[in-house]
Structures are given as C-alpha cells and as structure tokens.
Predict the structure.
Amino acid sequence: MKNGFRQSMAWLHTWTGLLLGWLLFAIFVTGTSSYFQEEITAWMTPEVRSVPADGPTSFAAAANWLEREAPGASEWSVYSAGKRAAGLQLCWVNGPDAPADAPTDARLDGAGRKAEARETGGGDFLYRFHYNLHYINWYWGRWIVGIAAMAMLVAIFSGIVTHKKIIADFFLLRFGKGQRSWLDAHNVSSVLFLPFILMITYTGLVSLATHYMPWGIAANYADEQKFFDATFPWPAPAEKTGPAPLTAVAPLVERAERTWGAGAGSIRILNPGDRTAQVIVSTAPDANMSVRPRSLTFDGVTGKLLSAHNPSGAATATEGTMIGLHAGRFASSVLRTLYFLSGLAGCIMVATGLILWTVKRRAKLADPERPHFGFRLVEKLNIGAIAGLPFAMAVYFLANRLLPVEGAGRSDREIAAFFIAWGAVFVWAAARPSRRAWAEALAAVAMSFALVPVINALTTDRALVASLIAGDWVFAGFDTAMLLIATGFGWAASKVLRRSASPRTTRGKRPARTASAEAA
C-alpha cells in the first residue's frame, strides 16, 4: 500500500483491475453481445424465416397448432421473446395417456407453421455465460461474477479519485505514443462512457441482489420457494371436471394488450378443452422498462376476466426498472446500438487497463527481454483473454454452420468448440514469444471472423448479398458486423507486427517515473 490517499487509491485501482480484469473482460464482452441476443439466435437458426412473431394472430395460430398436436395436454405455454424474436416457442405438459417419449416442445414461425430449426445455444449461451459462467454450478458462478462486479465498482471509484484531469481526458487520444497511447485509450473509454459503465455494473449487482443478500427473504418467508411463489405466481391446473370448447384466444390477447397499452409476450392455457380451463396472458419482455411482467387471467370457456396480476410497490418497481436498464430489452434499435457501443467501450477500458499494466512495468524491468515469471504470466493471460475470447466466439459461430445439423447434443458441441478454441489460445500464448503470440492470435481472430460470412454463404442460402437483396437485415447486419470485427482485429494484428519488426527504441523515450505519475 502506498502512502497518501491518492496513491492508495491508485494502488487499489491497479490491483483490483488486474486480479479480476480477465474475468471482467469476459463478462463485458459476452454481456455486450447479448444486446443482440435475439439477432444472434436468429442467425444461428437459418431455417426459421419468419417475421417477428407477436400479436393476437400468432398466439391464436399457436393455440390452434397445439389443439391439433397436443390435444390431451394439461397445460400449453406459448412464449415470444418480443418483437425481435424470430418465432414462437411452445411447451406443453402431456396427459397421463401420452407415451413417455412424446414431444413436449416445438417452435413455430409467425404464421403458425412448425419450424424445424437446428439445435443451438444461440445468443442465449453468451447471455447466460455473462452472469452464470459455464461448466460450474450456476450458484457459485453467480457469486464469482458478483465478486468481479464489486471489484469493478471499487476499480471505478478508485479510478475516479486518482484522476487528475477528468475533463481533459474527454478530448485526449494520442496514437503512436507507446504507453501514453494505451493510457489515453484507457482514460477516454472509461471517462467518456463512465455513466454507462457505472450504471451497468451497479444494476448488474442489483439484478442478482436476492442471490447475494438472501437475508431479507429469510426474515420474511418460511423458505425461499414461498418468496418466489409470492413474487412470481405460477398457478397449477385445477382438477378437470368435463370437456368444454376453448374460447378464442385472439380476443383475449387483444383485450390484454389494450388494457396494458403494450404487447403480449406469452400465454399459458391450463386444462385446455375442459370446463376448468384458464388462459393467462402476460406482457412481453420488451414491453416496458421494468422486466416484471403483468398478467391477466381469463376463464378459458367464457373468456371472462378472472384476475389481474400487476407487480406494485416502490421496491418492486425500482428493482424491475434497474434490471430493465441493465438488460436493455425495452430499447429501440438506435438505443440498443448505443448500449452496444457503450458496452464495447467497457471492453476496451478493461482490455487497455490490462495491457497498460504490462506496458508500464516493462519499462521498469532490469532486462525487458527476460522479464520475471509474474510479468510473463500476466502477459500470457492478457493474450489468452483479450484475443482468446473473440476467437472462441468466432469459432462458436463457425461451429454452428459446420457441425452436422442433425443429432442430439449439438448445442453442447458448439459450446465445447467455444471453450476448446479459447483454451487453445492460452496454450499458444504460453508456448510462443509474447510479441509473436499477440500478432498471431490477433491475426487468427481476424481470419476466423472473416470466415464466418464465407462459411455462412457456403452452407446456407442466406449469404450476405442474398440477404441484402431480400432485405433480410438481421442476416445482412450479422455478416457485416463479422467483417467489421475482422477488419478491426486485422488492423490490430498488422500494428503489432509492424511494431515487432521495428527497432526497439521506444521504451527509453520518457522517464518511467514521469509516465507512471501521469497514469496515476
């Protein structure tokens, strides 16, 4: 610990940022990609060609499909992820006479036709990874992510305290200046996007507040399940009393949408075709800023409104709004793009902070060509995290196109490809000289992202040009984004290659002591 308050905060900023920086980078990257979760899922299921499925007509079509295909079920559920979702997800609970291996789910397009889509983790895997991690128990994964988020808050506030020229840093970005350039990039990405980074970190902690602080539940409920039953009511089907025709679903959805002034996102039909039938209509996840859904329950035979569930109370509204701010599901296309760019700035902030740690200390090494073990370890971990994760994501997309479409466990193989690719970059970084490993890993990332639209064109009929002609903006946008990312990493790889080939004279340009003081 250094003497003096500012120096102590600089020490805290440096070490909290370093020790959890690699994990924070992964959380930021996968979380940022999740702002286009539905678009990623749509691209990874090219068989589904529907327009966004929403509204009374599509829910009625889904109910008609279930009436034909699952007539004896005790419960039907139809979900839409919102206006951007390509299709409806259906689930049902089979009756006692159904075979044990009878299907219990299906996916429909907006016209009520069954879509035979490939099995994939889609955008959901990246979304869940950013708060659950993977291959470890979700309970501990959330704790690890929570500790990293707390460290992020500490790093943010200690970084604010240590900043001497916070206004000047809005406008200061110098290229080709070695350590100064890395410091400028770190400062600009953190200062310019500070409100977003603070918001996203704090609301991320709030979204899992009951996981991190369960004592309020323990003080007011006999067990955790009673809390969830009260907060998220989930009525069970009543005992059947005799057959009766199911009322038309579309008018019920229309009435619910008029009542809320917002779109419906799901319907549950309990005991369909029985006199005890009920239809529960709930709001869409992108209907409001708050993520807590409202619902109306109707009699499934007469269509009479039975009850309304509307989460209320200041605490519930605050919590739901904060989670909604974090997830950004309510956002328009423009606002969603701003969310994405701000998240990208957070990724740059973390990455440049990690790289800056090694750049600053390399200048102080007695022999920069033979650094000590701790320095080499950080450098290798930086390569594995900053280049390895994007490479893994590109391989994940490529695996979606290259793995056989049929077969069980396909989504698991996609995810396995993701982690194998990520681990391979760590191994490569450990085996190669750092400068060469940086250039090679960045070039591999660029090539893998550039391959995504190429492989997509070779394996589907939804290539970039065809998508542009057809006005399929999700596929065209995804392929274009892949090419832009490839260009960015290709530029970074060429910069590292040129720097590796140039005479090493830059480290002596400025006294290390002066540069360190500016960084603080």
Observations:
- The beta strands are 75-79, 88-93, 105-108, 264-270, 278-283, 295-299, 305-309.
- Residues 156 and 194 are 8 Å apart (CA to CA).
- Confidence is low (pLDDT under 50) at residues 505-520.
